[in-house]
Amino acid sequence: MSTNNIQPQKGGRIGKITYPFRILGYTIGGVILVVTHWPVSAFSPLVWVVACCFLLMPHLIYGIYRFSRSNKQVEFGALLVDTFIAGMLVNLIDHAPFTTLFIVIAFPSNSLVIKGFRHFIRSILSLVAGVLLAGSINGFHFEHSPPLEVNILTAFFLGINYYYFAWSIYHNASLLRQSRREVRQQKEDLEQQNIDLERQQKEIKRQKDDILRINREIAAEKEKAEKLLHSIFPASIAERLKQGERTIADRYDRVAVLFCDIVGFSAYAKQVSPETLVLKLNDIFTVLDQICQKYGLEKIKTIGDAYMAVAGITQRVPNPALIIAEAALEMQEKVRQTSITGMDQPLDLRIGIHAGPVVAGVIGDSKFSYDLWGDTVNLASRMESHGEMGKIQCTLACYHLLKDQYEFEPRGLIDVKGIGEMNTYFLLRKKPVGELVVN
User: Fold this and answer.
1) Is the residue at 292 inside a domain?
2) pTM: predicted TM-score of the whole model, two decimal places
3) Distance CA 232, CA 226 (A)
4) For a Cys staple, 112 with which of 5, 120, 201, 357, CB 3.0–4.6 Å?
5) Mean pLDDT of 150-172
6) Residue 208 belongs to a domain
């Protein structure tokens, strides 16, 4: 920030303070003219013009101050006018050495101090122009010994002007100090703003880190939720739920359903603590889950120690009964290899399977459940409940789908609750390679 940018108000302080100095100085200049050219007969028209200028000039300059908003421009013009009038005064006092020396030294030097070297040159040119203009009108006269009163009035005139210029220097120095204070204050304000900005940047960074952390936590929770959703529902059903679909019901014409029950586990449950019961049951169901994942079966649900799965929903295959039979045989084998301390008999399963059409869908509002409905589900459940320990019982329809690849033991007619008499078969094993029948 420079002093040149400091704009005063109208009728600025400089104009008001220098106004009386200029009136006094120019009045003394007029008195010098009168004393020098006394009596009246010695007066030339130029003397009268310059005397009137001396009397009117302070008011003119003050008017410029009063209606101008720029001290810099006003000071520039006023100094040039003062110098020009001083040049005319030099001629009108007949180039008196004492007065001329002081005027020549005073006005340009003050221009040099206040406005700089370029204005110093302008002041000299303005002074010379005033001398030449006055000389062209009044002629050139040289008085080596002017009256004492002229010298005294000239010294007083110069003193007034020096005082004015000294005050101008002081005023400019005051403006400079003020500008320095303002610059220092601006610097302090800027430093404080930088500190505040750094604090805000740190706060923004902290908030950004919090947002990133929250986003990571949300992503992690979303991933957990999706894993949980996929663990409860088939992948295709989970995606449909995520997209906002609420009424999900599908018909499948060819699926195979499996029900199995852990034989003797209900009696074992009465002998152990709840924690032990849940841990052991979890071990068994984990084995069954791994087998379902291996063969592409979809686990539907568990009820107590019963387990339900289906083939042909997540993977469309020509004969899902083949997959359910292979999985049932492996479940039977793996569970038999699992031992539980405290049970009176080896661990074994009772399994029932059936193949046919089903309806599958999601039910519930706040708690969703994926389930199957239809006669196929009911017959598979009856095959398990009317079966025997350690055996896999299937319906006649399922037998016809598997008889070419697997060995069976006919059980004959049994009375199935809610259905009546049915021919059922026990699935034993897969046929040796040489006995397989290729359709």
Assistant:
1) yes
2) 0.53
3) 10
4) 120
5) 65
6) no
